[in-house]
Write the structure tokens for this entry.
Amino acid sequence: MAEVIGEFNSVSELLLSDESLQFACLTLLVGIITIILVYRKFSNWILTRKFSYTRSHLSNFVRSVLLPIFALILITAVNGYVQITGIFLDDQQGIDTPQQIFAKILNSLNLVIIGYTTSYLIPIVIRKQNASNEEKQDFIIWKEKRGFGDDDNDFFHTIYKWQPPKEPPEDMDKAEFKRLLETKEGRKTLEKFRTNKGFEIGTLVPLVKDPFETWKKSEREKYEKYYQDCTSGNNQVGQKLRPGAEPNEIFSIDQWRSEKRLRYYDPIKPGARPAGYSEKQKELMPKSLTSFIPPLIFSGFLIGLLVWWNVDLFVLGTALAGLGVGIGFALKETLENLFAYLMIRKDKVFVEGDRVLIEDYNGYVHKITTRITYIRHALNESIAIFPTRQMVGTKVVNFSKDYGYVPALIKIGTSYLNDPQQVCSILVKVGKRAMKEIVDENGRHLAVQERCPYLDKNKPSCGCDHEIVDVTQPWVLFDDFGDSALMFEMWIYVRDYGSQFKMKSNLRLMIYQEFKKHDIRIPWPIRTIYSGNQIREEKEIEKLDELRKKTYDEYGPGEMNKF
């Protein structure tokens, strides 16, 4: 047996001092390599199981904790062996034996593994909590919509029963209210009824003990059917999709829920998206500040470990400070980008999807990283790449911040022979019609307004009345006396920057139709010399004067034109 040495200059010197330590180190290395190889096989296998898709958070938890557990068991076993062999050695007072030093190294490895594992498990728990909160929001929307499109057999009314109010709402006649209560169809009409302020009437009485849990179970069953259709070939592709394939061909349950939210809760068709779509969407998602939790927690464990080894933190801190200054100068731009990224995320200057104007470049924020920011041109012509630090040091116009709605502005000129008040009333008529009729591909109104038109049809609101609109709509102005025309403006506020273009196009078509119907003339952009034709035009215009007066009496000239 080698002489007991109190201090060692290196780990290799420590190992050379005792044969039992050499055997323990060899066992440790072989065990760790074996565990890693087995873990990789197991991890790849579990990704192909249904469990990995239906319980994705639990699957990530198991995969994250399994390798550290086996490593801890191995290190603890080797540590026990080393300490048992050290019991039979002579102990010199005040001097640590090689076995004791090696055992302390193994204990340090255990602490490092525990710290590393803990630092990565906490974000998983946080993501699970966030997913639960999003699920609760989905449930609230499901209640407002009285069910989703992929529900079976009026599922909503198996969970809730609508109970009518005792008295009719203020904006409904009492006789009409009583008449509707007498029939089944009438009660359905009352259940869908919304007041002028958009409120429901009556109350929803739960028919089950826990409506939220019952709804969650139903959503999980719908996902399992989606998974079954994907793996059985009963899908859009027409062939069996493989779980665990690279790139991924099947949504996990969390990805499935996110996709439903993006599609306003329309049913998700199995195999409708190309392979790798979910990974691409995940890359485009903004990084959460929880991604900074693991290094912070792990750093705390390392500092505690250094204290345990009696390392002078003052000396270490001084050395790290000097090193940090050198690294700071070398990585100046990188650190500026990193801190700019943190500021943008914290202050929410803009987020992915916002419409912005940066240095005359107008487009959508495509992706924000700790190094660069991608801005996609509004017409998909190009992608501009800016250093992230530039985003906090230059003027940024955000068209989507806080108040997302913007005005769709139409300018129009009419003949001097037309009555401007009648023109205003026709524009008001067109504006009110546009607010009701112009919708996107999902049936959502483009114009923001105080009351959604769907409520008048006993349908749930599309959300166009959720914004605070403190202006009169449509806003019609008699703007100016032009060289050859009376100039008018009409504003209608739409929900976001991109919606104004479709609104403007449809408004122009409607204005053209109404002007043609009422003989409101749009002059040519030329100077006209009249030689008696004005009298003829006036007589022609007078023919439809009654129709224009009728429109004026019904719609008025607009709030800004009354006098």
